[in-house]
Structure formats: C-alpha cells, structure tokens
Amino acid sequence: MGTTHTQEGKTTPKQPKKSCRASTAVFGVLLLVLVTFVTGILFYTFVMDNINFATEKISTQIAGLLLDSFSINSTHIVASLKNAGSTLIEITTAYVNGLVTAITNLVKIAPNAIGSVILTGNFLPGNTYDVKLANIFNTEVTFQATF
To answer: Shortest CA distance to 117 belongs to which of 82, 84, 144?
Structure first.
C-alpha cells in the first residue's frame, strides 16, 4: 500500500480497491463452504460405516441364537443355547418373570457350538417361569420353564 499526498501536505494511507476487499471476502466464504461440505461428507461416511458394522453384527447374532434344551429344579434353571451364527456370542443378562437373575457362569458360545447358561433362584413346583436371556446387543432368547 502506498501513500497519497493531499493538498494540505498531509499523507493518508492509500485504501485498497473495493473490488479487492470484496473478492477476498467471497473467497473466504467459498473456502468455508467447501471445508464444511468436505467435513460433512467425511462425517457421513464415518457414521454410515459404523451403522453398517453394527447392523451386520446385530443381524448375525439375532439369527444365530437358538434354545436347544433346558432343565429346571428348585434352585437352578439350566438352558442349553446353540450359536448358529458366525460370531462369538456372550450371554450377559438373564431375567426370570421380568426380574434380573444371577448367571452363575460366564457364557461365551462359539459359532456352531452349544453352551449352557445356569441361572440361580428359588423355583417352586407347579409354577411356570418366563425366562429371557440376552447379550450386550439385546439379542435375546425367551422361553417358558415349568417346574
């Protein structure tokens, strides 16, 4: 930027042309729009990849957990579950008649294998119990056990 002289001998800074200031502002706005657009595309790709991964895992586990057999006595319900899916399934929660029930063993069932879940409680003869077994993805198996 140069200086200009006025008639009174004072120097004032030379102002840039208005068109230069406007083009810089337009360039800045376009750059912000471009950065926002690219960030949005990257975020969308990241989220969709995670959703697809979770959907695939849940679908595999939903289709894969089947009740093979069960037995009941006054203190335990033992359920044999078959993992017909292609990934390891871990049973993490159990409910009997809607109440959380203790699982006595850590249950991890390999693909195409059968695992046993042992539930503890006080079970009375002549009663029917609604049993629900689930994993962290809320894939569940429900059945009724009559003692």
So the answer is: 82
pLDDT per position in the chain (147 positions), as tens?
Answer: 555 555 565 666 666 565 556 678 888 889 999 999 999 999 999 998 888 777 766 655 555 778 889 999 989 999 999 988 777 888 888 999 989 998 888 888 888 889 999 999 888 888 999 999 888 776 788 889 888
Same domain, 53 and 72: no
Domain containing 123: what range? 65-146
In a domain, 5, yes or no: no
Q: Of 59, 131, 128, whose CA–CA distance to 91 is shortest? A: 131
Instruction: Check whether residue 52 and residue 73 sit in a common domain.
Output: no
